[in-house]
Amino acid sequence: MSPTPAAGPEGTHSGQGTPGGEPVRILLCDDHAVVRAGLLALLGSAPGIEVVGEAGNGEEAVATAEKLRPDVVLMDLQLGAGIDGIEATRRIAAMRDGPYVLVLTTYDTDADITRAIEAGATGYLLKAEQPEELFAAIRAAAQGRTALSPPVASRVMAQMRNPRPTLTERETDILGQLSQGLGNREIARALFISEATVKTHLGRIYDKLAVDTRAGAVAVAKERRLLP
Known about the structure:
This protein is α/β, with parallel strands linked by helices.
């Protein structure tokens, strides 16, 4: 099944390169050199697509996007040390007349999808997709059209029908620590906050998730895919 494209202006999607007929210029961003090499070889076989640069971390992706001005940045989310793919996406999306960002990742949690879209990503694709689906998504992204992997599109629709609780970044951090079995004191030390602050956040988390125990909070968070 192909990625789900959002509706765009009629006649703008040629299926090959950009609307003007030029190849879609791509910047690859992934912290694994082997993955980048594989994508480079794969995209080299695609008509109407040209890889013009590579980046191994978020900072490099932002700087290279600013310099080369590709049409699309193919962005992984987990990039090792430095800023992650979400922050890199946010900075690139904020550029004046900057490139579109198409996330290509193995992570499909609600938290990751929401953060990427809020950061300005044009599309969200999973690495399990078939090559033809990746090519189609790249061409759609180059025209500013949204392309989502079918599982991601289904999840987005489910969120729209049944909005998940909105947790703050700090509450999400605490939930993550909670899922690792840490107690309040350990969470406080890990996040450099007081135990009282941890307890306050836990109370808010319990209210939002409609639970009254730590185990219940973790169970609901996993069920609703709230953990990054």
